Amino acid sequence: MAQQEDVFKKLVSHCKEYGFVFPSSEIYDGLAAVYDYGQMGVELKNNIKKYWWDSMVLLHENIVGIDSAIFMHPTIWKASGHVDAFNDPLIDNKDSKKRYRADVLIEDQLAKMDEKIEKEVEKAAKRFGESFDEALFRQTNPRVQEHVAKREELHSRFAKAMNDNNLEELRQIILDYEIVCPISGTKNWTDVRQFNLMFSTEMGSTSDGAMKVYLRPETAQGIFVNYLNVQKTGRMRIPFGIAQIGKAFRNEIVARQFIFRMREFEQMEMQFFVRPGQELEWFKTWKEIRLKWHKALGLGDHKYRFHDHDKLAHYANAATDIEFEMPFGFKEVEGIHSRTNFDLGSHEKYSGKKLQYFDPELNESYTPYVIETSIGVDRMFLSIMAAAYCEEKLENGESRVVLKLPAPLAPVKLAVLPLVKKDGLPEKAREIIDTLKFDFKCQYDEKDSIGKRYRRQDAIGTPFCVTVDHDSLQDNMVTIRHRDTMEQQRVPIDQLAQIIGEQVSLKSLLKKIVEK
């Protein structure tokens, strides 16, 4: 685990050093849990968004997009349940004066128990070698069984306390399991209290006439309140979906793990409207489609898993997360929820407007049920960077840091490098860029040795480097170098667009999603 933490630290500093992610307001010592995307980061982020957007609105005729405002009528958040129910259970340590989320403290305790089980399995695997039967060992070893029983006992208590919203029981669990404050090391805890996560501000010019409004904590409600506008103007027939990418804001107390949990973040959400009674079938379908989208990136199928929710939100009748193996364990990157007709039904009640759909096939009106797919752009960014970051020892004894980013998502697709800064080579390199820049994000680099220039491109994940040498002026051929294998081949300049295009086009990813 310590080794993974080291990798994570290196990844965070790599993100800063190569222009992917900067701490926000850094010259003023930063602002906690807020980050800015640099010149490389914004390209990667835009490519992730395009991959998601196209997978929704290009591949599905019945999904369209919108872009709703961040400010919304405050009653919307009353109707959605956010004013009353969007709370975190917080607990303070009286000695360190630090505040924690009670549920996170207990989840960390569960993770420690998981680690103990894994250590037992690893020890046994070393002891027994190739003859080791892991499944049998997990089922029969008394020590593992004891750890599993303790974990299950804590897990069921925790799940019940969360479902019952029992704050006293959460505190009791923390005391019973002797969970200490990571800073003071003491068990001197306050009671658990609820804390609302929405940022509020005022709209209006005078303090008397100002209306309290909220920065949206999710983008979904913008879709729900526009559902009828889209359905009518687009003449949409159920089932259909509405997709949206946008900023959301949460006043997280425990904001940590770099860009994994931030106060200002970006979501990619799609709400899919279906007939009542068909929602669980569609829930299953969207689980499969979304997992295919992730796996198409080629980061490793074993790095994904579904995690079904113990505690269902007040609006859901089924919920699962797609979790990705980050350097700090499996973590949620996407949620898929069957939201029933809670949202539209609630907005009907609070607004007094009829939001029903008339189904011509059934010849009846009903409030549609909704399947939601919701993914954090920043978490997706982090999972891709974590999977791509690689330190390699080379045959000549040197080492390199390379970002093995999926080529269609890489910020820069092609670097063109003149072998020397004279003899017409820079001009030839510029000529190549001028023909390719309409299709691909290109970089020109003439400083330092060719080896150092390769290293720089490896560090930002550029899939192809093209070297222009003296022969290029005669034979119109260049040397193309592939990032992952470092193999080099001589190719005609007029074939570059085709060679690179096949590798870096989003189409190659999108085709994988629709493959049966």
UniProtKB/TrEMBL annotation:
Domain Aminoacyl-transfer RNA synthetases class-II family profile per the UniProt entry, residue ranges: 151-418
Do the record's keywords include Chloroplast?
no
GO cellular component terms listed in the entry, alphabetical order: cytoplasm; extracellular exosome; microvesicle
User: Pfam families of this UniProt entry?
Assistant: HGTP_anticodon (PF03129), tRNA-synt_2b (PF00587)
Going by the entry's taxonomy, the superkingdom of the source organism is recorded as Bacteria
**Localization:** Cytoplasm
Q: Which residues bind ATP?
A: 250-252, 260-265, 332-333, 376-379
The yes or no answer to whether the keyword Oxidoreductase is present is no
Q: Which InterPro entries match?
A: aa-tRNA-synt_IIb, aa-tRNA-synth_II, aa-tRNA-synth_II/BPL/LPL, Anticodon-bd, Anticodon-bd_dom_sf, Gly-tRNA_synthase/POLG2, Gly_tRNA_ligase_bac, GlyRS-like_core
Question: What is the catalytic activity of this protein?
Answer: tRNA(Gly) + glycine + ATP = glycyl-tRNA(Gly) + AMP + diphosphate
Q: What is its EC number?
A: 6.1.1.14
Protein's GO biological process: diadenosine tetraphosphate biosynthetic process; glycyl-tRNA aminoacylation
Residues binding substrate = R101, E218, F265, E266, Q267, M268, E269, E372, T373, S374, I375, G376
Q: Which GO terms describe its molecular function?
A: ATP binding; bis(5'-nucleosyl)-tetraphosphatase (asymmetrical) activity; glycine-tRNA ligase activity
What keywords would UniProt list here? Aminoacyl-tRNA synthetase, ATP-binding, Cytoplasm, Ligase, Nucleotide-binding, Protein biosynthesis
Q: Could you tell me what this protein does?
A: Catalyzes the attachment of glycine to tRNA(Gly).
Q: What's the subunit arrangement here?
A: Homodimer.
The entry assigns this protein to a family as follows: Belongs to the class-II aminoacyl-tRNA synthetase family.
- Would you tell me the protein name for this molecule? Glycine--tRNA ligase
Source organism (scientific name): Coprobacter fastidiosus NSB1 = JCM 33896
